[in-house]
Amino acid sequence: MNVAIIPARGGSKRIPRKNIKVFCGKPMIAWSIEAARDSGCFERIIVSTDDEEIAGIAHQWGAEVPFVRPAELANDYAGTLPVIRHAVTWIQDQGQTFEAVCCLYATAPFVQPEDLRHGLECLETSDADYAFSVTSYAFPIQRAIRLTPDGRVAMFHPEHYHTRSQDLEEAFHDAGQFYWGRADAWLAEKPVFGHDSTPVVIPRHRVQDIDTLEDWQRAEWLFRALQEDNA
Fold it and tell me: Could you tell me which residues come within 8 angstroms of residue 173 by beta carbon, excluding any fewer than 6 positions away?
């Protein structure tokens, strides 16, 4: 059995009620629930939340909410690893066993069912603990600059000032969509970003962090453009 766990606490600060705010016609969390369902990867889709309204909307869109997330795992400082560990432990305490667990973010409307299937395949065909979504940086990170306290600029890596962009190693970052993992890895809270993880590469045009209202607006523009293109 494979399980999707969607963390969705109620106390988002930068965009209040972000997990259930309407995004392109549906509550944000609905896009993640539908992608999980349409992937065919999961016997159970569980939302981990401390919030009654989020729980109700998750039920409406076809997810389970079989427990209430403890308050100590629903504050501003609770990390993803202990939240997923709590959910995995709860499921095991009910006498169920499973092959793999996917942490799927509630704020990932760009996630595609085929990406989830690919992630599961990457995990199953490797000896990795995790398989998670990544995407490439649009600009070489070796040529990044910072703003100095005196109002000037400085390179983070000045040794690459004369290096051609095409000669620099491509860099990737977490796409913030999903994290497949083995149950024992989640229970041990093993770090996701390490040698025991394998990447699932997502095109840049299907990745967008949504942390501010400006991010939200840009994400809706991009999402609608992708829908029109697919149509």
Answer: 134, 135, 137
